[in-house]
């Protein structure tokens, strides 16, 4: 009995030594911000399902920007974003329309599937048509979004030297192949595309065709996290966590072996970048660090990426915190 207890205590001690951050310095650098949809109109996440028209439940607007527009992306960068996330659909006329929704019914005056609508028609729509914060009494953005749905080409031309995380909304491998072809042919696109994610088929097709490109989908994210939880304590790194983006929900981060500094050092050694989300719940991998309370989830010395839906708030708050931290070091 005493021998078994001693072996157990020794095992626990070894696991602790392998995973404590006490003797590990965090990787060099400072935290970076990833602005989901640019600067956009937010809404309460409670009871939001896959088919909920979120434009009809926005909070009272505090700024004039609509998601996935060039103006909203510029505003996000101005607020401190290092990367902006945007959504794409490959249209019948072979353009990548930058728009979140699978259909047009919620945000515009039109109906139909976004990827089935030619870009020439999408350009005529009012993308601010459906927004309301008071149950339909007023529509503060109606008439202001006409012609504001950009193509990916227009975004990259308007915002050179910026970086974008591209979200495939479909499951069409064709989209990934088309994006890979364009990125491969244009050096400025390769510099601009920070990574890809979303639909498994287009994401994996892009990664297959573009050496060195990073990306993830739900399956690869769960494979990385579950396998790391299973045996990451040993220092062994799952292949699913190598040379990729490792998505970490803030409320589960403390469960990861070696969090924060040893975990970060392991991921850096594996060629991966950490993207820290807000509290995970309900299967949503787009919850962000969106409040001052959420920002407390970001550990001191963190040098990965922080996903946020409120860049206008978190950008200045993080900058202020980083100045304060620099003053104490």
Can you put this structure into words, describing what you see?
This protein has 329 residues and is α/β, with parallel strands linked by helices. The chain contains 11 helices and 9 strands. Strands 1, 2, 3, 4, 5, 6, 7, 8 and 9 form a 9-stranded mixed beta sheet that branches. Helix 5 packs parallel to helix 7. The chain starts with a helix and ends with a helix.
Topology diagram in text:
Blueprint: H1 2-19, E1 32-36, H2 70-78, E2 83-90, E3 96-98, H3 119-122, H4 152-158, E4 163-168, H5 173-185, H6 187-192, E5 193-198, H7 200-209, E6 215-216, H8 218-231, E7 245-249, H9 261-269, E8 273-277, H10 292-295, E9 305-308, H11 311-328
Parallel strand pairs: 1-2, 1-9, 2-4, 4-5, 5-6, 7-8, 8-9
Antiparallel strand pairs: 2-3
Helix pairs in contact: 5-7
What is the oligomeric state here? single chain
Indicate the low-confidence ranges by residue numbers: none
Main β sheet profile: 9 strands, mixed
Helix content estimate: 25-40%
Give the termini distance in whole angstroms.
49 Å
Mean pLDDT across the residues is 95
Q: Name the structural class.
A: alpha/beta
The total of beta strands comes to: 9
State the order of secondary-structure elements, H for helix, E for strand. HEHEEHHEHHEHEHEHEHEH
Counting DSSP H or I runs of 4 or more residues, the number of helices is: 11
- What would you call the shape? globular
Cα-atom Rg, whole angstroms?
Answer: 21 Å
């Amino acid at each position: 009995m005493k021998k078994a207890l001693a072996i157990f205590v020794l095992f626990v001690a070894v696991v602790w030594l392998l995973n404590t951050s006490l003797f590990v310095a965090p990787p060099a650098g400072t935290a970076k911000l990833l602005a989901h949809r640019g600067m956009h109109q937010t809404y309460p996440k409670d009871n939001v399902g896959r088919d909920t028209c979120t434009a009809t439940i926005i909070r009272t607007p505090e700024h004039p920007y609509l998601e996935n527009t060039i103006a909203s992306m510029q505003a996000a960068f101005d607020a401190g974003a290092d990367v902006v996330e945007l959504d794409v659909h490959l249209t019948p006329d072979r353009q990548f329309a930058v728009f979140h929704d699978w259909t047009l019914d919620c945000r515009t005056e039109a109906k139909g599937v976004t990827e089935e609508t030619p870009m020439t028609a999408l350009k005529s729509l009012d993308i601010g048509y459906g927004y309301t914060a008071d149950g339909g009494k007023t529509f503060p953005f109606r008439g202001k979004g006409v012609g504001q749905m950009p193509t990916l080409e227009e975004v990259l031309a308007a915002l050179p030297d910026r970086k974008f995380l591209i979200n495939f909304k479909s499951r069409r491998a064709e989209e990934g192949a088309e994006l890979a072809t364009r990125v491969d042919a244009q050096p400025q696109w390769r510099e601009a595309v920070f990574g890809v994610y979303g639909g498994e088929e287009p994401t994996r097709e892009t990664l297959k065709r573009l050496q060195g490109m990073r990306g993830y989908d739900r399956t690869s994210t769960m494979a990385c996290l579950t396998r790391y939880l299973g045996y990451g304590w040993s220092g062994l790194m799952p292949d699913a966590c190598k040379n990729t983006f490792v998505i970490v929900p803030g409320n589960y981060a403390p469960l990861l072996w070696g969090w924060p500094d040893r975990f970060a050092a392991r991921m850096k050694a594996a060629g991966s970048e950490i993207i820290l989300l807000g509290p995970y719940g309900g299967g949503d991998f787009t919850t962000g660090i969106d409040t001052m309370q959420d920002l407390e989830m970001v550990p001191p010395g963190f040098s990965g990426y922080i996903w946020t839906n409120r860049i206008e708030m978190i950008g200045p708050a993080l900058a202020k915190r980083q100045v304060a931290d620099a003053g104490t070091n």
